[in-house]
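Appendix B. Worked example

We walk through a single record from start to finish. Start with the input: the chain for Amine oxidase domain-containing protein, Vigna mungo, length 582.
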Amino acid sequence: MSTMMAAPSLVRCYSSYRNDLMKSKWKCKAEGEADVVVIGSGVGGLCCGALLARYGEDVLVVESHDQPGGAAHSFDIKGYKFDSGPSLFSGLQSRGPQANPLAQVLDALGETLPCATYDSWMVHIPEGQFLSRIGPTEFFKDLQQYAGPNAVHEWRKLLDAVLPLSAAAMALPPLSIRGDWGVLSTAAARYAPSLFKSFLQMGPRSALGATKLLRPFSEILDDLQLKDPFVRNWIDLLSFLLAGVKANSVLSAEMVYMFAEWYKPGCCLEYPLHGSAAIVDALVRGLEKFGGRISLQSHVENIVVENDRAIGVKLRSGQFLRAKKAVVSNASMWDTLKLLPKEAVAKSFSDRINTTPQCDSFMHLHLGFDAEQHKTSNVTHAGCIFKFQVAVCHHPPFEDIPNDLGIHHIVVNDWKRGVDADQNVVLISIPSVLSPNLAPHGKHVLHAYMPGTEPFDLWEGLDRRSAEYRNLKAERSEVMWKAVERAVGGGFSREKCEVKLVGSPLTHERFLRRNRGTYGPAVQAGKDTFPGHSTPIPQLYCCGDSTFPGIGIPAVAASGAIVANSLVSVSQHSNLLDAIGI
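Next comes the structure step. The output line below is what the pipeline stores for this chain.
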């Protein structure tokens, strides 16, 4: 799994190794037609396009930006390689029927993803701070210290109930799903024996609980009578990291899958050695390996509909790209609607999209700084300490930045406000802790962000060149600066950062072409469902975080795979499952 946090790129340059190895190939000119044209090169779009190429289809992925990856793309400034989005991953190297959907796609493409592994992140909460470790037993120690024996009892009760449900939640491999009746062959019939066996092993009580997998996770918590405030707050935090909503809105199946990934024996978290860019690179390699193409700086102006069918796309340059079989949009539902001619859209379709609530947007802080900011040569004279000829009088030496900094930090300022309140939760990723190649020697790269909690209304209509905009960025980013200072410690200095970039919802909207800079649909489990992948317009399909199963890297990878599977025959689909051993 991974948190799905998306951030904009603030520059248009890339690391030299990617420029040399791959970028020249991505500059290909979009040719006139393909079997399938995919709009957008986010993880969902790349998974869809690469799998279709694997199936033998002629695929063209068109991307407006000059870098592929969508919310997962990376950018380089002064040798600092920044992730723009996802930073918390697990299951990337897993294989088999219960593997992460992205891992299953990479397996189908014959691509590997070298990763560093770790098992903890630092938590800064009102009660204190502690190193939270994943696994079945470690968290009990933290609960005992910060919440007490009742929280320990309730957490054990939760694990005892939830972990057996994972057999049902993970019984159908994501790669086996398709959007037509062929799913009865590729999923239902193929995996019925293992599904039946898992229900038998679960026992009657857990099997009954499995009926709640498509209900809000809070219903499972309520059935278990879990009331400890710390436990409920912690679960809301995990839910929000996973899907952008609290436990009363997230699907139980998603949370059960996450619990199985994080709280089983031997589990670990993973980080790609070259950052999230490595995920994008692997998917593009897979796409091109099987004859697929990707064209950057190819902005789609509109989807062309003739005789009530999607037949291709028109680029801003005026070029028409014909899609002989299908057009697949990896844009959000709101942005996809803008690409369609109004006369081709049924009112019921547009009404549903326009009335779907949106998650809020993001604030981002990208920093590059010296890992040993204050380890400089000192010269003492007349009661003063001189550093690089700058006198700092009557002050003791600064603290050093800790060597055991840790890759991830989560800061919660006030539980009472809720994890979905603005200016309350800050996530911090320092990937150079595990992958030193992401920063110049002796330096760190840091990405702090507020995950889908920044109201777009505060920013709407502002001129990005105005003093008002600059002042609002300074004001709204202050909570992130304070979180970074809290996480990194007294050795950190804002003034000594070599790179300082603040991203706003307008940046998010501009670079990711996300309507109102949104994180995605705010769909509440039990009250509504994510849309499927087909549309009322024949030959037009959608994938990504506006479709089932929702927000997050595993979810969007699964959505892309479902669309690809739906566009080929059942026998082709079955042969692929056989080939990768699931």
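Two observations about the output. The longest strand covers residues 443-454. The first helix runs from residue 16 to 26.
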